[in-house]
What we know:
The complex is a heterodimer of chains A (about 120) and B (about 230).
Chain A: H1 9-25, H2 31-41, H3 53-62, E1 66-72, E2 78-84, H4 86-117
Antiparallel strand pairs in A: 1-2
Helix pairs in contact in A: 1-4
Chain B: H1 13-25, H2 30-49, H3 54-65, H4 68-81, H5 85-105, H6 114-132, H7 134-143, H8 153-184, H9 189-220
Helix pairs in contact in B: 1-2, 2-3, 6-7, 6-8, 6-9, 7-8, 8-9
Amino acid sequence: MSEKQNANRSLVAASSIPLVLAILARGESYGYEIIQTVRARSGGALEWNEGMLYPVLHRLERDRLVQSRWGKSESGRRRRYYHITTAGRAALADERSQWNQVHSALESLCEGESSWAL
Amino acid sequence: MGAVDPSPPCPDPQVAAWLQDLRARSRLSSDEIAELRDHLEEGLARSIRDGVHPHQAFAIAIESLGDVEQLIPEFERNRTMKRSMPVRVAALALATLPIAIAGWSVGFSPLAHLPSFLLVSGMIATGLVASFGRQAVGGAFRATSGDAEPVDADVARAVFRRGYQLSWAAGVLGVLFGVVSVLTELSDPAQLGPALAMAISSILYGALFAEVGFRNLEHWVPMAVRVGRIA
Lengths: 118, 231
């Protein structure tokens, strides 16, 4: 891809929480890895201000959607690992159904449009 | 989360210096610093593995963190948000207690000065509604409780910041009115008392509205749109 299409800011912001929850639903992870996963999965379209992920994670923890524990990285640094809670899974399912509703509405409208166009 | 044994010292002197500087000018906890450190070092190691020069790798790692001036308040606000509603109400009550006691000891009448209270609160309310409209102002106050998002969190914070400024402005104007009427009534000593009362209690109410009221309310706006800054 010569021209990378970046998602607009509000879309990136709105999708940050479901994406974090979805990643943690697949297994325990930590900040840096979460960002790498998002970047890889979106083909680089979702670029975060990386530092801002941490306040978001802390807020999710405060809301009891995720929990954290301190562990070690391979090189012995302290590393904070996050995992999803039952409430987090419920929130993820809820977010997903909302995104799906938007997606299917948009798709059905655009399908209609392409048949008028030509 | 219990503290575990400390990490080995930062292998990269640039990262160590940067974190030390961050620590000096913010109130980030050692856990929060440790988390950022892990992030930076991980990014650094990755860049170097990819063949980037260490100096450049550091610049890249810092750059991708985003604007630190915006980041620090996000961490700190998040912390104030951890306080639950009852704790906040208790803290407010505690803050107003000395004022109440002071008021009691001199008798409440000098502090409860209705005309200046009406002047100050009227000016704040009028100013807020004139700037933002009734709906946004009402929404901002509702936004301080619960997760409902009646208005954009940025609007709510703007409302409270304006409220803070208006409170001080109204207090100062009250002083001005009071002093002007003192000066015009100099020949009539009976009028001096009320005029001075106006001057002094307006600034008291202005200060209370600003520092005890709006300044705290600003921090009560939920994170709602704050995650917007991730983008």
